[in-house]
C-alpha cells in the first residue's frame, strides 16, 4: 500500500493555506505523469549550477543550485534526489530542515515565492554500479577508476537534485574537481582546467536548454583521440586498458559522414558545437544520445581483432541512430515518456536511412528487414502486443513498452509513411517540426500535424490505424490465370485476430516472378495503395502467369506476407535461383515464418539450410540464415530426448557444413569468421568439441583463422557448456591469461554454463543476492548463461523454486534487474507440463510488475510454440 507525504500536508496547514491543494505526491521511487504535469504547470525557466567533487572513491559529493520561476507558491514543491545524504538546503537564502524520503525533497510552501526562486542543496551519494545515475567502475587490469552518467528514462536524480521530467528543460553550468590524471566530458566543452591541491578543477560554460535525461557528465583517466577534419570537432574516449581495441579512424569516418548527412537532411546545423563519443563499461544498453557526449557499450563495440563488415555496419548504424537523436530527442524532446517510442522509432528509421545513404553500407535496409523488423513482427504477434502509442502512468512504466514494437515497428511505420507521402514531403514535414519546436517539448500530434501540413492531408485516420491499434496484418495475393495470363488479381488483407481487428492503409509493391534459365526473374512490378479487406489490382490483369508472387516487394510495407501455395513451393525449391539478396532474404523469412507457425516442419527447414547456406554469397543474408539456424538448434535442444537421435544426426551434418565453409573461406575474413561463429554455435559432438580444443591448443591450424582472445573465450565457453574433458582447467588457465573486464565477463559465462548442479546452485544464490557487490553487468551475464537450452533437466531442479519466488524478487528488485531476470530466469522446457506450470504462475501472480508479468506470458506462449513446432516435425 502506498504511503503519502504527511509532512507536506502539515506544512500546508501550518501555512494557513485553505484553498484546494494538490494531492500529496506518493512516497515511492517513481514520478507519476499526473504529478509531473502539476509540477510543470508551476515551474519554468529552470537553470542548474552543478558542482561535483569526484575522488574515485565509492561516493561523491555535490552542490546543486536550482534557479526557477514558480507561478504558484501556495503549495509545497518536490525536487527529485535518490538515496543521498543531504548536508544542507538553502531556499531563497534561508537554511531549511530537509523533508526528504530518499526519493525526493519536499520544499514547504512558506519557503517559496511566486516568481524567481533559488534552492541550493549540498549532498553526498554512493556511485551506482548498475549502469544508472553516476556509474563507477574499477578497471581490474590497472586499478584505474572510471565514471559516466546515464539518465534515461528518469535517472538524473540518481546523480543530482533535479526536476527529473522531460518537459522541464533547463540549462546546466558545471564545475567538477577530479584526480589529476582525469579528463571530463559534458554537454559543452570545458572553458577552463585549473590545477588544485591533489587534482584539477574543470569548468564548463552553461549549456543550451535540455531535458534532464539528455544532460551528461563523464569523468575518468580516459584515453582520448581527436579529429578536427569535419565541420565539428570530434573526440573519442575509451579506458586506457582497452585503447588498443579501438579503431578511431572508423568512428571518426562514420561520425563525419553522419553529421554532414543530417545537417543537410534536417536543414538545421548540429546544435551542440562539439561531438564527443565515449566507450564505457558495464553499460545497460547499446548507446545513449546524451547531447554532445554520447555513450556506447564497450561490450558491443570493442573487439580484440579487426572488425568484420557486420561489426562495422553495426557501429555505423548505432552512431547514426544516436546522432539522429541530437535533433529528434535532444533539440526537440517528447513531453512525457509516452513519447519515447517516437523518439526511438524516428532514430531507428533515420539511422538506417543515413547508414544506407552516407556510408559504404548501402544495403542497410536489408539488414533492417532481417534484424529489427523481424523482431517487431515476432513482438507484434505475442499475447503482450501493444499499440505503438501507449499511456505511461509513471516513470515506473517508462520502459514497459520499449521493445521491438517501439523501435522497429515504429520505424517501419515511418518508412511506410514516407512512401505514402513522398520522400521530399516527408523530409519537409520533419524540417518544419524541428524548426517550430526546437529547444521545446512536443507531442505526437505536433509531429503528425507537421507531416500532414507538408502533405496537405489529414493524417488522423492513418494515426489511429497505425499508432493506436496493436497487431500485424497479413497480406496475400489472390489471383487466377487463364491461357497463361492473369485473369484477376486481388490483394487481400486480414486482421491479426478478432481481438485486434484493425485493417490499415498502406502502400506496397507487388512483384511477379518467372522461373527461367537465368533463375527467378522479375517480370512485372506495380505499386499499390491498399486498404480494407480486399483491393483489386487491375494493372496486373493480362500479365504472364507467375511462378511466384511477392506482395511486399522491396519491403515498403509492414505486414506479414502469406505466400500462395505455388509461390511457397517455388520459394522452397528455388532459393539459390533468386539474384536479389533482399528478395532472397524475404523468401527465407517466409520459410521461417512457416516453421514458427508449425506449418513447415523444422527438419525440412534445416535441410534447406544444408542445401543452400554453403553457397550463399551475400554476407548480410548469410548472417540472417545462420541466425535462424541458431534458433532452430535452440528449439531442438529444448525438445528433449524424443528428438535426440535426429538432433545428433543433423547436428553432425551442420558441424561438417560449417567447418568446411570455414576452411573454404580462408581468403575472405568476413565470411570465415561468420562461418566459424556458426561452427561454434552448432558444435556439440565429441569430434567437433575435440576439434575446437585442438584449435585452442594450436594443434589444428585453420588457414586464415585468427584465434584471437575473443575466439579463445568462445571456444572455452563451448567446451565448458558440454563439460569437455579438461575444460574447467582450460577456463582457469584462461582467467590467469586474461584479467581484463571482458575476460572476467567471459569467465563468468563459461563457469555458469557448465552442466554442474553445484555451480548452478551457487550462481543462482549470487543472482538472487540484491545486495551483491558484483556489478550488475556481471550478474546479467550469469543470468543469460545459467541455463542453456539443452540443460532442461538441470533447469528443472530449480524451476519450481524460481517460479515460486518470482513475485518476491519482482517486488524487491527494480525494473533494470527484472528486465534481465524475467527474460533469462523464468523456466520453460517445451512440454505440456511446463506450459501448464507457467499458466498456473500467471494465474497466481496477480501483483507482478507490468514488465515481469509480460515476460511470464511471453515465455508461456513461446513454450507452447515449441511444442507445436515439435509436433509438426516429420522425422523418422
Automatic annotation (TrEMBL):
Peptidase M1 membrane alanine aminopeptidase domain location: 255-466
Example GO BP: proteolysis
EC category: hydrolase
Keywords noted in UniProt: Aminopeptidase, Hydrolase, Metal-binding, Metalloprotease, Protease, Signal, Zinc
Signal sequence segment: 1-19
Obligatory cofactor(s): Zn(2+)
InterPro entries per UniProt: Aminopeptidase_N-like_N, Aminopeptidase_N-like_N_sf, ERAP1-like_C_dom, Pept_M1_aminopeptidase, Peptidase_M1, Peptidase_M1_aminopeptidases, Peptidase_M1_dom, Peptidase_M4/M1_CTD_sf
GO molecular function, one term: zinc ion binding
SUPFAM superfamilies: Leukotriene A4 hydrolase N-terminal domain, Metalloproteases ('zincins'), catalytic domain
GO CC terms: cytoplasm; extracellular space; membrane
Domain of life where this protein originates: Bacteria
Catalyzed chemical reaction(s): Release of an N-terminal amino acid, Xaa-|-Yaa- from a peptide, amide or arylamide. Xaa is preferably Ala, but may be most amino acids including Pro (slow action). When a terminal hydrophobic residue is followed by a prolyl residue, the two may be released as an intact Xaa-Pro dipeptide
Pfam families attached to this UniProt entry: ERAP1_C, Peptidase_M1, Peptidase_M1_N
Keyword Transferase among UniProt keywords: no
Family the entry assigns: Belongs to the peptidase M1 family.
Stored NCBIfam families: pepN_strep_liv
PANTHER family, per the entry: PROTEASE M1 ZINC METALLOPROTEASE (PTHR11533), PUROMYCIN-SENSITIVE AMINOPEPTIDASE-RELATED (PTHR11533:SF174)
Protein name, entry field: Aminopeptidase N
Amino acid at each position: 500500500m502506498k504511503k503519502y507525504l504527511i509532512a507536506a500536508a502539515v506544512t500546508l496547514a501550518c501555512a494557513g493555506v485553505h484553498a484546494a491543494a494538490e494531492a500529496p505526491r506518493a512516497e515511492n521511487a517513481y514520478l507519476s505523469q499526473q504529478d509531473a504535469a502539476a509540477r510543470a504547470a508551476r515551474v519554468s525557466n529552470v537553470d542548474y549550477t552543478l558542482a561535483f567533487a569526484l575522488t574515485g572513491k565509492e561516493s561523491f559529493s555535490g552542490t546543486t543550485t536550482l534557479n526557477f520561476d514558480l507561478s504558484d507558491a501556495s503549495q509545497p514543491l518536490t525536487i527529485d534526489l535518490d538515496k543521498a545524504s543531504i548536508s544542507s538546503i538553502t531556499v531563497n537564502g534561508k537554511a531549511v530542515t530537509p523533508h526528504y524520503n530518499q526519493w525526493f525533497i519536499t520544499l514547504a510552501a512558506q519557503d517559496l515565492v511566486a516568481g524567481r526562486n533559488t534552492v541550493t542543496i549540498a549532498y553526498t551519494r554512493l556511485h551506482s554500479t548498475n549502469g544508472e545515475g553516476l556509474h563507477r567502475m574499477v578497471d581490474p587490469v590497472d586499478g584505474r577508476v572510471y565514471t559516466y552518467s546515464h539518465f534515461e528514462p528518469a535517472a538524473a536524480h540518481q546523480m543530482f537534485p533535479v526536476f527529473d521530467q522531460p518537459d522541464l528543460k533547463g540549462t546546466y553550468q558545471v564545475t567538477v574537481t577530479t584526480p589529476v590524471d582525469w579528463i571530463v566530458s559534458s554537454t559543452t566543452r570545458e572553458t577552463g582546467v585549473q590545477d588544485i591541491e591533489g587534482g584539477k578543477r574543470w569548468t564548463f560554460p552553461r549549456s543550451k536548454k535540455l531535458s534532464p535525461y539528455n544532460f551528461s557528465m563523464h569523468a575518468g583517466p580516459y584515453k582520448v583521440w581527436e579529429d578536427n577534419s569535419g565541420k565539428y570537432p570530434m573526440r573519442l574516449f575509451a579506458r586506457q586498458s582497452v585503447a588498443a581495441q579501438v579503431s578511431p579512424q572508423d568512428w571518426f569516418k562514420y561520425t563525419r559522414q553522419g553529421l554532414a548527412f543530417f545537417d543537410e537532411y534536417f536543414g538545421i546545423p548540429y546544435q551542440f558545437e562539439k561531438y564527443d563519443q565515449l566507450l564505457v563499461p558495464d553499460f545497460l544498453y547499446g548507446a545513449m544520445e546524451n547531447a554532445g557526449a554520447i555513450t556506447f557499450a564497450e561490450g558491443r563495440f570493442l573487439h580484440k581483432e579487426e572488425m568484420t563488415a557486420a561489426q562495422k555496419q553495426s557501429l555505423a548504424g548505432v552512431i547514426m541512430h544516436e546522432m539522429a537523436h541530437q535533433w529528434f530527442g535532444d533539440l526537440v524532446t517528447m513531453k512525457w515518456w509516452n513519447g519515447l517510442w517516437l523518439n526511438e522509432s524516428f532514430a531507428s528509421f533515420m539511422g538506417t536511412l543515413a547508414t544506407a545513404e552516407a556510408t559504404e553500407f548501402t544495403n542497410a535496409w536489408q539488414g533492417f528487414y532481417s534484424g529489427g523488423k523481424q523482431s517487431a513482427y515476432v513482438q507484434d504477434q505475442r499475447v503482450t502486443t501493444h499499440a505503438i502509442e501507449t499511456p505511461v502512468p509513471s516513470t515506473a512504466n517508462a520502459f514497459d513498452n520499449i521493445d521491438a514494437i517501439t523501435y522497429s515497428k515504429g520505424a517501419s511505420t515511418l518508412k511506410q509513411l514516407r512512401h505514402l507521402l513522398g520522400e521530399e514531403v516527408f523530409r519537409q514535414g520533419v524540417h518544419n517540426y524541428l524548426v517550430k519546436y526546437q529547444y521545446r517539448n512536443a507531442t505526437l500530434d505536433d509531429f503528425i500535424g507537421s507531416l500532414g501540413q507538408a502533405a496537405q492531408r489529414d493524417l488522423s485516420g492513418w494515426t489511429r490505424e497505425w499508432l493506436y491499434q496493436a497487431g500485424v496484418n497479413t497480406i496475400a495475393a489472390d489471383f487466377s490465370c487463364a491461357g497463361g495470363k492473369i485473369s484477376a488479381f486481388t490483394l487481400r488483407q486480414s486482421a491479426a485476430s478478432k481481438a485486434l481487428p484493425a485493417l490499415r492503409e498502406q502502400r506496397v509493391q507487388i512483384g511477379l516472378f518467372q522461373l527461367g534459365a537465368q533463375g527467378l526473374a522479375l517480370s512485372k512490378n506495380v505499386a499499390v495503395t491498399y486498404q480494407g479487406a480486399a483491393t483489386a489490382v487491375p494493372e496486373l490483369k493480362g500479365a504472364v502467369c507467375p511462378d511466384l508472387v511477392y506482395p511486399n516487394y522491396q519491403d515498403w510495407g509492414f505486414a506479414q506476407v502469406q505466400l500462395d501455395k505455388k509461390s511457397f513451393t517455388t520459394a522452397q525449391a528455388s532459393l539459390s535461383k533468386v539474384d536479389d539478396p533482399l528478395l532472397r532474404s524475404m523468401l527465407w523469412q517466409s520459410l521461417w515464418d512457416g516453421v514458427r507457425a508449425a506449418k513447415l516442419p523444422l527438419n525440412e527447414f534445416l535441410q534447406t539450410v544444408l542445401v543452400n547456406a554453403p553457397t550463399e554469397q551475400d554476407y548480410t543474408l548469410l548472417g540472417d540464415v545462420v541466425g535462424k539456424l541458431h534458433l532452430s538448434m535452440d528449439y531442438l535442444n529444448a525438445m528433449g530426448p524424443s528428438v535426440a537421435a535426429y538432433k545428433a544426426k543433423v547436428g553432425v551434418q551442420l558441424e561438417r557444413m560449417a567447418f568446411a565453409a570455414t576452411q573454404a573461406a580462408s581468403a575472405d575474413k568476413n565470411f570465415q569468421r561468420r562461418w566459424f561463429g556458426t561452427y561454434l554455435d552448432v558444435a556439440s559432438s565429441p569430434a567437433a568439441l575435440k576439434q575446437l580444443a585442438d584449435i585452442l591448443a594450436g594443434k589444428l591450424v585453420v588457414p586464415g583463422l585468427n584465434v584471437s582472445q575473443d575466439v579463445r573465450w568462445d571456444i572455452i565457453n563451448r567446451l565448458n557448456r558440454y563439460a569437455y574433458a579438461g575444460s574447467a582447467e582450460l577456463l582457469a588457465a584462461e582467467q590467469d591469461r586474461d584479467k581484463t573486464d571482458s575476460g572476467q565477463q567471459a569467465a563468468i559465462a563459461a563457469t555458469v554454463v557448465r552442466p554442474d548442479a553445484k555451480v548452478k546452485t551457487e550462481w543462482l544464490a549470487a543472482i538472487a543476492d540484491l545486495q551483491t557487490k558484483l556489478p550488475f553487468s556481471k550478474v546479467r551475464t550469469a543470468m543469460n548463461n545459467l541455463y542453456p537450452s539443452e540443460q532442461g533437466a538441470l533447469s528443472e531442479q530449480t524451476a519450481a523454486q524460481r517460479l515460486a519466488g518470482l513475485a518476491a524478487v519482482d517486488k524487491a528488485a527494480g525494473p533494470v534487474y527484472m528486465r534481465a531476470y524475467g527474460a533469462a530466469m523464468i523456466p520453460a522446457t517445451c512440454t505440456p507440463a511446463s506450459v501448464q506450470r507457467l499458466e498456473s504462475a500467471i494465474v497466481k501472480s496477480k501483483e507482478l510488475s507490468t514488465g515481469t508479468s509480460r515476460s511470464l506470458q511471453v515465455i508461456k506462449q513461446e513454450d507452447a510454440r515449441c511444442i507445436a513446432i515439435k509436433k509438426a516435425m516429420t522425422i523418422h
